[in-house]
Design goal:
alpha+beta; globular
């Protein structure tokens, strides 16, 4: 059944996400092209309210509460800029935090609140699509999955299969060295909506503000961004 855009926009956000999941399941292995129509003002409001109220501010220092003081006008403007292509991804504010068990520091990129709202809105599109791609034993960055569940799965696997060796591996500086063209090529296998892919391209190219200056890179994507994983 093909729904008209007007009918689609009247659906609750949860229903629209279920519809995306259904369509993604019907077209396994195929790219989906009509996705940005699901994003409307109500969708952006849900994205806003899903953020933490104490969410760290970005380079503009605007807080979650401050953005919400004029929420109706803010999401209306954001929606228009995002869909028309006029949205400009602001640079992320970089902070460095100690890395547990290492002398190195982890680089975190903190987007502005508005950018977080839009990233969350896009993530709400991507989640039901890529949820179908995961194995049952994949726990990282999945909605409703936790580290505790991963440990329980590991424990059950060890005890039930007489495992004697466990190898702990980590991809060194993965987020810092992601090649943009490869990431976008992989994305294109499932998502070819121009609005969505254009936004992701802008986030990949957004600069990083640190020590008063903005730098740009042809690789990597900031840890700390909602849509980064």
């Amino acid at each position: 059944m093909i729904m008209k855009k007007e009918e689609l926009l009247k659906l609750p956000v949860s229903t629209k996400r279920q519809r995306i999941a259904t369509i993604a399941k019907q077209h396994i292995g195929e790219p989906l092209t009509l996705l940005h129509h699901y994003i409307d003002e109500a969708w952006l409001k849900v994205a806003y309210h899903s953020l933490r109220k104490d969410s760290a501010p970005g380079i503009d220092r605007q807080t979650w509460l401050e953005y919400g003081e004029n929420l109706e006008a803010n999401v209306k403007s954001l929606l228009d800029r995002a869909k028309s292509g006029r949205y400009k991804a602001p640079a992320v504010r970089r902070v460095e935090i100690p890395k547990p068990g290492s002398k190195e520091k982890r680089k975190l990129g903190i987007p502005t609140i508005e950018d977080k709202v839009l990233q969350k809105a896009v993530l709400m599109i991507l989640d039901p699509i890529y949820e179908l791609e995961f194995y049952n034993f994949s726990y990282g960055f999945r909605t409703g999955k936790s580290q505790h569940q991963a440990l329980e799965y590991l424990w059950q696997g060890i005890m039930g299969n007489k495992i004697q060796w466990i190898i702990d591996l980590d991809i060194r500086k993965f987020f810092d060295t992601v090649r943009h063209e490869i990431l976008q090529e992989l994305l294109g296998k499932r998502v070819r909506d121009g609005v969505i892919t254009r936004l992701i391209g802008k986030w990949l190219k957004a600069g990083v503000l640190q020590d008063g200056s903005i730098s740009y890179s042809d690789e990597g994507t900031p840890q700390g961004g909602i849509v980064t994983p």
